[in-house]
Amino acid sequence: MGRMSPRWYRDLDAEGRRAVWSTYGGFILDAMNVQLYAFVLPVLLILWHMSPSRAGVLATAALLSGAIGGWVAGMVSDRIGRVRVLRLTILWLAISSAVCGLARSYDELLLARIVQGVGFGAEWAVGAVFIAEVAAPATRGRVTGSVQSAWALGWAIAAVVTAVALWRLPPELGWRATFFVGLLPAAWVYWLRTRLDETPSFSSPQAEGDWHAIFSSVTRGRTLRGSILATGTHGGYWALATWWPTMLRLEHAMTAAQATSHVATLIGGSFAGYLLGGWLGDRAGRRLTLATFAVGGIAAVLAATFLPLPAFAFLALNAVIGLFALGLYSAITPVLTELFPTRLRGSGLGFCYNVGRGLAGAGPLAIGASIAAFGIAPAIGLYVAFSYSLVLIAVALLPETRGLEFGAAA
After folding, report:
1. Per-residue confidence at 407, pLDDT binned at 50, 70, 90?
2. What is the Cα Rg of the chain in Å?
3. CA distances in angstroms from 116 to 55, 90, 96, 121, 401, listed in the order given
4. Where do the domains of the chain lie?
5. d(CA 67, CA 351)
6. Three-state SS for 308?
7. Coil, strand or helix at 208
8. 15-197+210-397 domain in CATH 1.20.1250.20?
């Protein structure tokens, strides 16, 4: 990357750069594989004659199992190491995603999504801890934000893969083909992880780090606040990620090409949000960044779902929504790693991040059940506003953790 790369990247040694690229690649695949469902959903609604509520169950199922997978993987990584767990998670994710493409019925797809969700949650939770421990304290927000921008790229790839597959293949084959695309890239990520060592702050198994210690009198307050923060962040995002493409097609009567352009605009904004959130978190602090993005997200989503906007204004607002919704993640990941000592970091982040994701899993289901009464857009807008209000509550309760050092024996 040379001198065009950011300073934090140039300061990394060869091991650190391999860590960045293996995590970046894993996050791309994590996002792509789980987001494919949102893009094939309009096709499945027609092919399988699914109701919106049953469609919401398929989205919620992956989030709930992802909560379990992320928490368990985080606990295991505190015992046997981050890298060893990450080698397993990428294989689980790739294989379970391919199984989704083989489903012959609603029940089979539901089961496959549950299994896929375990790998999805595990990959993200352990990868987030791993890359946070690789980063220097002064640039942790920028490093994690830059690596997490892989989500936007994976999201974009999911949109492109689905568009091409449904254009070139009959719908019944096209939606299935999308779930096989990640197999070969996953093999490359696995190979890269066979060359990785553990981070300096985790040089040996942490036997003293029992998982239930995150509920001790010393840490349970932080565990609760971190869980509220993650619930709000995930709640807003997954409501958008699951139902926004369908809203564009059904409520705004867009063609597939028009809906893709709006989603692409949203994804472009999200990429900028990751980078801005990481930079702002390191410069202005985690709490101010979280509050700014939560308030901005509430305003942008309510405007997009309740106001009669001209077409160009609505398109531009998609970028703003993406910026705030995904920029939040650049701040919550450093916060959740900085709340816990090394011996509990995987367990703590895994619990907070994934319990938040599991509780947020009620969002797609609740929106699907509310569509008949409110319409898709109002249901999305109200749920997102409620979710980001939880972020503001958490911000008021959490300590500022910017610049915290990770000690090997912390």
Report:
1. low
2. 20
3. 16, 11, 5, 9, 33
4. 15-197+210-397
5. 8
6. coil
7. coil
8. yes
